[in-house]
Amino acid sequence: MENLKPWFGSLALIPIIVWLSINAGDFIFLLDHFNLLIHEGGHGIFSLFGGFIYTLGGTLMQIILPLLFVYYFVSHRKRFGTQISLVWLGQNLMNISVYVADAQERTLPLLGGNKVYHDWHFLLGRVGLLEYDNHIAIGFYLIGIIFFILAILIPLFMKEYKETKIELTL
Residue 40 in contact with residue 111, Cβ under 8 Å? Predict the structure, then answer.
């Protein structure tokens, strides 16, 4: 039983990962809104670096923030926290894939309505890759799958940190 304990987190996450994989990252209404706030905040943070990076900044922040959580939990040897953070990163990558795939059609509802431009239409158009939006979207989706697999397999690579209490007697 002790050998199975590290895998409980993986077993708990498998149904969520399957759901996310089938539904391209669409999971929980509240989580999607939280990710949208992170995306929009990224535009503000990266606005100092010009129009292209400003536009890319929303997507960058959707990747950077979960990676910071991964780093924190790995550095503190917290296996389940690492797994959840990797799933969150994979879910964001899948949401990004939906946005990228919409670059040519531009049918997704955007914050600000018709007054705003589509980030990925602008970005891919600027670098001459707009016609490859679906291929790039598949790449984001597959990278999300890789992070899901990594999340499930974390017990193979990471040992949980166990605190030992030392009592001093005088």
Answer: yes
Instruction: Give the structural domain span for 118.
Output: 5-157
Tell me the C-alpha distance between 13 and 84, whole Å.
Answer: 8
Best CA proximity match to 21, nearest among 158, 152, 136: 152
Residue 50 located in a structural domain: yes
**How many whole angstroms separate alpha carbon 41 and alpha carbon 37?**
6
pTM of the predicted protein model:
0.88
The pLDDT tens digits of the residues spanning 95-114 come to 999 999 999 999 988 877 66
- Does the residue 81 lie in any domain? yes
Picking from 86, 90, 57, 91, the residue whose alpha carbon sits closest to that of residue 72 is: 86
Domain count, the chain: 1
- For 6, list phi and psi in degrees, rounded to 5: -60, -20
94 in any annotated domain: yes
Q: Is residue 79 in some structural domain? A: yes
**pLDDT of 110-155, one tens digit each?**
877 667 889 999 999 999 999 999 999 999 999 999 999 999 999 9
